[in-house]
């Protein structure tokens, strides 16, 4: 049977979908492009914004139109957030629990030909998955954690992903070693609340990092996202002592205004955030720090928004992922007064994106004329493309085998990428 899989949303979803691919292939299913005619369609959904919801519904209906007789599986955050959601296109409903049971669920469906609703229920334990390959990628994701207990006032994710649960340290290390054995030189640690790893176990995120950087053959270890408050002294020590950890951190800010941060229910103020960034740059002066910022949160005035723009420039982010505030039913912020109108949110998103582009180019230009190590990920039509440790996208006019590290002198910088030339003998700026 042919199976097409569509993955929406975060790196955690991407990891889970890859596990499902591996599991289905072992069971004898053939993985096919999602936009082809398949016997089974799986949509791993997202619900972080209204746009995510709309895209989830769109993909469900597109698949069913492509083959009305196919078994359609809808799983993930959108399904769980909308517990009573029913759609005649869907045959199997799975939330964020028991995704790993996909083979037995398909067997049941094809035996009984009856709609299946997997109970959501509490998520007490980490649903262990073990990946050996990451098809079509040179960087492999490794899910180490699930769930979140921050309950920020705008966010639905803690309600649909459940409490924090972590992968056993020995299993995380075993999976990492296997991926490295299979040729992956860069691993990306991912989770819903990555830095909270180990709170349910007798370990910590710092402990995990200390073990990971010792894996033989691992050349880069990248952290997908971490909260500012989780950059503890121990984590900073590992960052200082190990060059294997990529020179890039994604640290969500969400707002550059203290009143907005307080209204959001974030766990820090601007002074605390800035102090943490300062500590990081004391040990990694050239580190790339990217962030998430929400514009148009209830009560955000034009003055507060301008404060956010100024603060972003002060911190000198390498890139900002900009999100207009999206009302999520079930969160506190939905009931807040002084909701910002859609046009204002759109305008602020446009203006902050312009700030991001300015900062992105300025950060990249710092490395013009310098030599950096690039992991080549694609090579086509005489152009090879990859990323540096500090997550600059770099292109060279040479055909280079993917999954190869090369030294590249950065010659010219643009908003979304840099052009460079391969330098065989030069030392790299780490």
Outline the fold blueprint.
Elements: E1 2-7, H1 11-26, E2 30-32, E3 40-45, H2 50-66, E4 71-76, H3 77-81, E5 92-94, H4 102-112, E6 116-117, E7 139-143, E8 145-146, H5 157-161, E9 165-166, H6 169-181, E10 186-190, H7 205-212, E11 220-223, H8 233-241, E12 248-250, H9 258-264, H10 270-283, E13 288-295, H11 302-315, E14 319-324, H12 342-365, E15 371-380, E16 383-388, E17 393-396, E18 404-413, E19 418-422
Parallel strand pairs: 1-2, 1-3, 3-4, 4-5, 5-6, 7-10, 10-11, 12-13, 13-14, 17-19
Antiparallel strand pairs: 8-9, 15-16, 15-18, 16-17, 18-19
Helix pairs in contact: 11-12
Written overview of the protein:
There is one protein chain. This protein is α/β, with parallel strands linked by helices and 430 residues long. It is 33% helix and 22% strand. The chain has helices at 11-26, 50-66, 77-81, 102-112, 157-161, 169-181, 205-212, 233-241, 258-264, 270-283, 302-315, 342-365; strands at 2-7, 30-32, 40-45, 71-76, 92-94, 116-117, 139-143, 145-146, 165-166, 186-190, 220-223, 248-250, 288-295, 319-324, 371-380, 383-388, 393-396, 404-413, 418-422. The longest helix is centred in the C-terminal third of the chain and has 24 residues, at 342-365.
């Amino acid at each position: 049977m042919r199976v097409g899989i569509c993955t929406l949303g975060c790196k955690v979803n991407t990891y889970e979908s890859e596990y499902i691919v591996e599991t289905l292939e072992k069971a004898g299913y053939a993985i096919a492009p999602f936009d082809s005619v398949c016997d089974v369609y799986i949509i791993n959904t997202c619900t972080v914004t209204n746009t995510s919801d709309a895209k989830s519904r769109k993909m469900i209906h597109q698949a069913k139109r492509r083959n009305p007789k196919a078994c359609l599986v809808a799983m993930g955050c959108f399904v769980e957030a909308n517990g009573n959601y029913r759609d005649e296109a869907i045959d199997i409903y799975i939330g964020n629990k028991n995704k790993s049971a996909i083979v037995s669920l398909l067997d049941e469906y094809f035996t009984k030909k009856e709609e299946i609703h997997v109970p959501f229920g509490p998520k007490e334990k980490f649903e262990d998955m073990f990946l050996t390959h990451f098809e079509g990628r040179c960087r492999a994701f490794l899910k180490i954690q699930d769930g979140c207990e921050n309950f920020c006032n705008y966010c639905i994710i803690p309600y649909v992903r459940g409490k924090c649960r972590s992968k056993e340290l020995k299993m995380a290390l075993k999976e990492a070693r296997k991926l490295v054995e299979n040729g992956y030189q860069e691993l990306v640690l991912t989770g819903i609340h990555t830095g909270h790893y180990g709170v349910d176990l007798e370990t910590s995120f710092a402990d995990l990092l200390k073990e990971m950087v010792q894996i033989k053959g691992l050349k880069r270890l990248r952290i997908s996202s971490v909260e500012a408050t989780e950059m503890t002294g121990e984590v900073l020590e590992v960052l200082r002592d190990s060059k294997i950890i990529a020179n890039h951190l994604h640290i969500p800010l969400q707002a550059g205004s203290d009143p907005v941060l307080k209204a959001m229910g974030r766990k820090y103020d601007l002074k605390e955030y800035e102090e943490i960034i300062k500590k990081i740059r004391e040990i990694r002066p050239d580190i790339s720090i990217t962030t998430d910022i929400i514009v148009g949160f209830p009560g955000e005035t034009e003055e507060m928004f301008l404060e956010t723009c100024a603060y972003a420039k002060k911190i000198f982010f390498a890139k900002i992922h900009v999100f207009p505030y999206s009302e999520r039913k079930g969160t506190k912020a939905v009931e807040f007064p002084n909701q910002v109108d859609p046009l204002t949110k759109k305008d602020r998103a446009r203006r902050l994106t312009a700030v991001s582009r300015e900062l992105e180019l300025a950060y990249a230009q710092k490395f013009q004329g310098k030599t950096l190590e690039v992991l080549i990920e694609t090579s086509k039509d005489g152009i090879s493309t990859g990323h540096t440790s500090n997550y600059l996208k770099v292109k060279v006019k040479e055909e280079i085998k993917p999954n190869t590290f090369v030294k590249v002198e950065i010659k010219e910088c643009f908003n979304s990428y840099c052009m460079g030339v391969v330098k065989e003998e030069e030392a790299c700026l780490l």
